[in-house]
Amino acid sequence: MTTFQADVAAADPAAVRAFSDRWAKAWNDHDADAVAAMCADDLVYDEPAVGRTVHGPDSIREFVTRMARGYPDYSFTLMGLYAEVTRRAVLVAWRFTGTFAKTGRRVEFHGDDRLELGDDGLIHAYRCLYDNKFVLSQLGGAAEQG
To answer: pLDDT means per 10 residues in the chain (146 residues)?
Structure first.
């Protein structure tokens, strides 16, 4: 596992890149266990777009599983990586594409994952940001996404 050798992410760009590549690969492989393994036991996962905050790696494992069921062909493309200058935190900008299994509608949108890492190299806080109204408009107003 790649860990940061510095107290701030910006001082360790190779670790930021390696970590972000692992994060993207785990999601793109639809590997719920690999995503959860990157998260600490005290994870706080916040998704304001749907008004949900959950805790622990099991919550993210369940979310990845639901996403794979709801969008069996989903993929994320990394659009940018941004490293914090005051702490171990990164922002991963991405583009999501996938087909909603219930309707066959194609969805494309961008978002950001704000990840705060501990000394252990694991994610302790994860905030996922995107425009849910835009997503719902592509789904034809479907209330449930995954």
So the answer is: 54 80 96 97 94 95 96 96 84 96 96 92 94 93 54
Rg (CA), the chain: 15
Residue spans per domain, the chain: 9-138
Distances (CA, A) of 38 to 4, 12, 23, 89, 106: 13, 18, 8, 14, 29
CA distances 21 to 49, 55, 78, 135, Å, are 24, 23, 8, 25
Dist CA 102 CA 119 (whole Å): 41
CB neighbours of residue 108 within 10 Å? 11
pTM exceeds 0.85, yes or no:
yes
User: CATH number of the domain at 9-138, please?
Assistant: 3.10.450.50
Q: Report d(CA 28, CA 106) in Å as an integer.
A: 17
